[in-house]
Amino acid sequence: MHRLGSARNNQWLVDQQHVDTAVPPPRPRLVRLPAARQSVTFDLRRTVMIVIDMVNDFCAPGGNCDRKGIDVRPNRKPVKPLNRLLPRLRHAHVPVLWLNWGMRPDLLEAWPKQLHTFDPFGKGTGLGSVLPGHPGRVLMKGSWDAAIFDQLDVSADDILVDKHQISGFWGTPLDSMLSNMRTRTLLFAGVNLDQCVNCTLQDAFFLGYDCVLLEDCCATTSPRFCVEATLYNVEHCFGFVSSSTKLLRALDADTRRASGKAARASRR
Questions:
Q1: How far apart are CA 86 and CA 90, in angstroms?
Q2: Strands (DSSP E) along 120-224, which ranges?
Q3: Residues in Cβ contact with 211 at an 8 Å cutoff, skipping those fewer than 6 apart
Q4: Residue 97, strand partner residues
Q5: Above 70 in pLDDT, residue 263?
Q6: Among residues 57, 66, 163, 211, which one is catalytic?
Q7: Catalytic pick from 43, 53, 57, 210?
Q8: What is the band of 131 on the pLDDT scale with cuts at 50, 70, 90?
Q9: Which one of 26, 79, 96, 110 has the fewest beta carbons within 10 angstroms of its own beta carbon?
Q10: Quick check: is 203 catalytic?
Q11: Choice among 196, 211, 217, 218 that is catalytic
Q12: What's the pLDDT tens digit per position in 150-166?
């Protein structure tokens, strides 16, 4: 029989006479992560890491936000912790998904109220705008502005999803993809913490996913009180707050357990 299915956790076995839809998923790989308010145990094999909007517009010198006078240096703080964490997650077979703005050239996904958010005075400095001396159009799919910041560790096997709203679940295939992958837990990182990260995490919660926010892998250019409110609400309403450092320690503990089991099995 042949395996049929694009996701490791959701496959059939088929041949000319029969279809087996009851193929069991991989054996759970459980990790226990210290978090606020409580520690949380989850299955790495049903977990996806989502990194939101770590793109040139929000992180790089010369991006539209930088040109508007916004200090984007805070948004580069997640780069180092992400570059330490992502290779370890890939090694543990946790998919890494980059969820970034990527507008259509005709902006038909963007209602006037959304355009107003980025360009409140209608001066042509928001979504899809062509700026003097600027490479491409602002947050347009395929543009430099919407490209992942080049200091980040990106793998050819990572998953890329374009979004056109502050939440990555609206009008995108994200939920369908995660459902096909039989995802249970989502790890969240990226910018801006109090805006796109926060709204995507809340929608994930409403859709039934278990949400873990990695605080040191998130950032924002907003005032500190926005950070405090977001962390408080995630911790008390929408999931768990932890860090990449704690997750790396949990992965180390999982590796030691697996090595110990393998060593004991080899001695039998």
A1: 6
A2: 159-163, 185-190, 210-218
A3: 185, 186, 188, 201, 204, 205, 234, 238, 239, 240
A4: 50, 159
A5: no
A6: 163
A7: 53
A8: confident
A9: 26
A10: no
A11: 196
A12: 999 999 999 999 999 99
